């Protein structure tokens, strides 16, 4: 069962830092392959939304849909195999509060 989790600002910030690192590792645009000195906040907006989804009780399906939409629609990148999004969504889900 999914349920909304109230988190304080300190915990939200911790989750956000972890989530930013996960998005940076995922790096769907490939900016870190080109330049290791790229700003570390490239995916902060997506990480912030991921944390909001996690703390609102989003299930794995909802997280995967968000990641796919962020990559394919918002970033305008070509679609990837479903497994790519499912695997990343599962990693995000490990941050669940």
Q: C-alpha Rg, in Å?
A: 13 Å
**Low-pLDDT segments, ≥5 res:** none
Mass-distribution shape: globular
Mind describing the biggest β-sheet? Answer: none
Seen as an oligomer or otherwise, the chain set is single chain
Order of helices and strands: HHHHH
Report strand %. under 5%
Structural class: mainly alpha
Individual helix count: 5
Structure description:
With 97 residues, the protein is mostly helical. It has five helices and no strands. It is globular. It starts with 8 loop residues before the first helix and ends with a helix.
Provide keyphrases for this structure.
single chain; mainly alpha; 5 helices; 97 residues
Give the secondary structure arrangement, pairings included.
Blueprint: H1 9-26, H2 31-34, H3 44-55, H4 60-74, H5 82-93
Helix pairs in contact: 1-3, 3-4, 4-5
Briefly, what is this?
The chain has helices at 9-26, 31-34, 44-55, 60-74, 82-93. It has 97 residues and is mostly helical.
């Amino acid at each position: 069962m999914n349920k909304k989790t109230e988190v304080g600002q300190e915990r939200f910030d911790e989750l956000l830092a972890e989530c930013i690192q996960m998005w940076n590792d995922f790096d769907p645009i490939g900016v870190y392959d080109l330049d290791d000195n790229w700003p570390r906040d490239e995916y902060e907006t997506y990480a912030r939304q991921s944390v909001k989804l996690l703390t609102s009780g989003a299930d794995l399906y909802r997280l995967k849909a968000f990641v796919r939409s962020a990559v394919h629609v918002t970033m305008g990148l070509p679609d990837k195999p479903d497994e790519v999004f499912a695997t990343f969504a599962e990693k995000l889900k490990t941050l669940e509060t």
